[in-house]
Each structure stands twice: as structure tokens, then as C-alpha cells.
Amino acid sequence: MGSSRASEPFDPDGVVWSSVSPRLASARRVSGCLPLLVLATGCAVAAVVVPWPPLWPPVVVFAGLTVWVYWLAGRQARAWGYAEREDDLLVRSGILFRRVVVVPYGRMQFVDVQAGPIDRAFGIARVQLHTASAASDAAIPGLSPDEAARLRDRLASRGQAQLAGL
Amino acid sequence: MTAPDDAPARRRAPAAADGQWHRVHPLTPAVKSWQVLVFVLVFLAQDYGQQAFRGGFGDEGGGDGGFDVGRIGTGLLAGGSAVIAVVVLAAVGFAVLSWRMTRYRLTAEALELHQGVLFRRQRAARLDRLQAVDVVQPLVARIFGLARLNLEVAGAGDSKIELAYLTHEQAQSLRGHLLARAAGVVYETDEAPQAPEHHVFELPLQRLFGSLLLSGAFATAVVAALAFVAFGVVSVLVGNGDLGPFAAGGIPLLLGVGGVLWGRFSNGFGFRVATSPDGVRLRHGLLEQRTQTVPPGRVQAVRLSQPLLWRGVDWWNVRVNVAGYGGGSGEQSGESETTLLPVADRREALTVLAMVVPDLGVVPPEHPVAVVEAALSGSGTASGFVTSPRSARWLDPLAWRRTGYRATEQVLLVRRGRLTRQVDVVPHARTQSLGVRQGPVQRRLGLATFAVHSTPGPVSPVVAHLSSTAAAVLLAEQAGRSRVARLAAGPERWMDVAGSISPAAGSPSTAADPPGTDPPGTDPPAAGPAPDARPPAATS
Asked: What is the ipTM of this complex?
């Protein structure tokens, strides 16, 4: 949507975006929807067994939230993108609140690769670049472990080559 | 005590830089734990006084039971004293041990500090990563002529090396060595000459008072006090005059405001700014005196701000981001460290801005001062500023004409605020990363917010509500500009770039300074408007 207005900061000219793995959506769905689903079923069971009718509105709310999170996770996962340029890395994310971050390789202090239990179960990892600024939040979730390792090494070597002082 | 730290350090500096391990001053444990000592002394004095009092009472009165109570009390107190004595002895023993375990050493590349009794810590800070050197004298340390030396390197979290305590002379001599080595200058002698200083600014006491009177905190206090009085009057007239609940709410507020004002006063007291080849030197503090040295190129970003009440007198407050200072982000982070000028008039603020950002990158037909003036108090597109488009008036009805940026060859100037004005200056070479954000309403209006990410500190340059096309252009251009500037940036060792270190040249601070003719208390000799080289090593 809005592809005609492409002179936007979120889609600079000549940038080819790589997207993250769709398994990110699955992982987010598990971590986001499962607790809501448990709450919804819990309330529903209580409402039937006790029985206490006022518990039905929460059931509806939690079920609705589950559907919403399920839908949102897919959209958000599709919105993540990153691009390796000659001198810097671009990371974009968000649909309603969009943002893009440009991190020069020479400014990179260190790279983190993280994967929690759910991430590992879905075979994804998260790469995060750290600069001397706390504000430059350049994290790419949902990379396959191979891609994460490749990106980490590539960023590290490029950072080494272009290292600057503060 | 308030004398500029010059002559004595040079004359009889201890061999701080011989590459050997040194201990900190033996009085360190006492100075670090003076509160405990005072507490113990007060307790003992009270104990003694009570015993004397009870003894006297027992003799005189001799009533039934009174004597017994007195004896029990005395016994308890004696027991308490014994416990206290044991605790104090243990504490003293630990403090002495901890002092013995604390050692530091200055090598060619690093300052190393070993400390800790149970949990040992060895820390080495690379000198070419040095961001700032502070010599801090808390009141008690000042009484004993001691000082703490803080070496800031740019690390995440607590990355400074703190040498506490040295004698004031040692601290200054060590600072000279640290700065010289960080600058890439090697001295053959044991002593590194202190770089000559050029006095730039001194904050008059009246203006410090004035700035506090015109502060928002003071205004709040006045309003609160008036409200309190009004409420009191009404309450007496109408009801039973019970002020208790209201006082309970009002007094903490007044105390808080008083604390803020006192902090600012104490921190800004005697604020002086000087420039030297080693960078900007700041001295300030009433009880705790702090001498800061920030070498060239270490200032990551500058913010000039003007609170509403200062507009009439055109005063400005100048804060900086220096990696390692402050700790956290936010307006109040490390206020005592990151303040470059607590309150200054426009001319002084510009002078100091020129010190920390020597090249604004404004090309000749245009005058740098005109550009900065436009940033300070201008609005609209004069002087090449790019401002928010008209559609931004829905989100920022007051300041949308003023919100804007101007990119010169070397720096990005960001201005904002209609009532309280702010100007951020970020050298392109110091940009860490860039970001653009856009919320749903902004998207409707075709706007986006651009941010330059700087190191943690009070300055976080953000241009809100640019047109999204302008934001895209700025993002692309700024990435290019900071890349070019990074490549052209000077070396971390700031004297490497000068190449003007000729050992034959006369040294203003070592040769032309016969010992004993430099009474403490005089200002350092003015070494020209901008001394551009450290005094060369006295090798000849």
C-alpha cells in the first residue's frame, strides 16, 4: 500500500530490503497468543463450571485479543526489513508507528545474537547492533540462525574495516 | 584552595608517571568514611555526656530507684560502646586492607587500577580512548588537601576509573600525564607540563542568583507558597484553621524545590571556563569542587537552551554530551558533569560553543554568527533552515514555524521551542546513527520525525514533524555527510594532527616560569586567544 509515494524515508531509492523469516510471525503468535488463549479458556471453563455468567465478557475480550495478536504478528513480521548498504545498515519496522534506523558500520561497538527458547524452537535468532548511543536501537529479529551468523560476522568485519573513534 | 591548579603541581610533582605501582593516599579510608567516623564520635560524646549527667543526678538526688535506672542505663551504654568499638575496629581494619589492595599504575598506553579485598577488580583504561579527566574535591577531601581523579572512557555503564584519593598536586600532575599521553605527546621528563590555559568565562554570583530566581523551580515554589498562605487564610476565616494535612503536602514540595535550587547553586558556584590545548577546562562547585578537562573532539553534541523566564534577559544554558559522563539519558542526567555553562549571555554562549565546536562549517559568504543567531531565536526559513511544513500546525501549533534544522558542512543545527528555546549542535563526525519515526497521525499529514542518535547525555537531537520528503532527504544526506566527516575526522590522539610539536620552541609554561614567582591565586597567564599547541617537552 502507498507504493506510489515511494520517496518516503521508509523506502529510500535504490535500497533492496531483505525481509525476515515468516517464522518470526509464528514465534510471536506463540508467545503472544498462548497466554491470552489460556486466559480465555480459563474464563470460559470457569463460566461454564461455576457457573458465573459475568465471566463471559472477559472470554470475548481475550478471544478477540488473541485473534488481533495473531493477525498483528503476521503484519509486523512482514514489516521488518533490513538492508546492507556500502557503509551502513538500514533497519525498518512497524506499520502504524513506522521507523527506520541507519547505523554506519564504523559506529558499531558490538553485535549481539540472541535466541530464546521459543525463538530456538522456531529456528530464528535476533541480531542487534550496538553503537555508543543508547538510542540507536537497531535490532533485527527473526533471522534464520545461518543468516544471523552470516550477518554478525559480516557486520563485525565491516565494522572492523571502518572503525572510527567516537 | 580555589587557586587555579598551576604552579605547585609543576614544581614538585611526585613521580606519578614512572610506570611503577602506586598506592592512593593513606588518609583515603578516613575521607571516604568520614560520615561513619563522625557518627561514632557523636555517639561516644553523647555516651560520655549521658554518663556524666547520670552520675551527677545520682549523687545529688539519691532517690529511690533512680540510681538503679541510671546504672542499668550506663551498663547498656557501655555494652553499646563495646559493640560499636568492635564494629569500628572491624571497619577500620577492612578500610586499611582495602587501601592496601588499591594500587594504580600509569603505563604508556593505559591507566591501570587494582582494587578490592574479597572481590578483586583489575581495570585498565586505554588512554587513546580517554574522553575526559576530572579532578574532584569533596569538602572533606578539600580540608585534607586531597582530590579524586576520574578518568572517563567511553564504555557502557560505569566505565570510569576513579582514583580516590590523591593529594591535589598528585592528581594534577597525573592529569597532565594522562592528557599528554592521550594526546599522543611523549615527554622525556618525569613531569608533564600543564597546558597553558586561556581564561574565557567566569560566572558572576549575582547572575547565578538571578538565574535561580528566574527558574521554573523557584516560580513553582513561589506559587506553592502563595497558595499555602491563601489556603491558610481561607481556612482560618472559614473553618477551624487546621493546616496539618495541607502542610504535610506542601512542605515536601518546598523541600524538593529547595534541594533542586541548592544543587544548582552549589554546582554553578564559581563556574569558570578556560581553554587549553588539552581541551576545555571547567571549574565549579561550592562544597564539592570539580575541575573537568574535556579534550578536543570529545564533545559529542551541544545543547543551548533558554527557559521561558530567561528570555527577557537573554540568558542561555549550555549542556554537552560527553561519552562516559552522565550515565543515563534525560534532562537531569549528570547535571554536575554535563553542564558547560549554567547561565551565560548570548555572546558568552557563542564563545563557548565555538570552543567545543571549533568549525561550524559555514562557508564564507555566510557568517557563522548569523546562522547561530537564526538557530537561537529565529524562525522560518531564513539562514537556510528547513522547517516543518504547514500541515505540522495541527500537531505543533505553537512552534511549527521554528522547529527545523540546518545542515552545514560540519554540523547539524537543530532548533525547537517557541516559549522555551532549544538549539542542538551535532558535528557530523560525531553522529552515531540516524533514525526516522512516523506515527499514524503524522502519516496522514505527510510528516515524519527525524532523530540523530548521540551518546547518552542531556542532548538528544530530534527534529519533529518534518515533511516526510524532507526527512527522507535529510536521512540520506546526513548519512553521507557523517560518513565523509568521519573519514576526515582528526585522530583520537588530538596532538597527532597538529604536527607542530617542535622541541626547540620556547615553552611558555616550563621555561618562562621561574619557580616561586607564581603565587597561588593568580590567574594562569593568558596564552593568546587560542593556544594551538601543547607546550613542547622540555628536552633541550
From this structure: 0.87
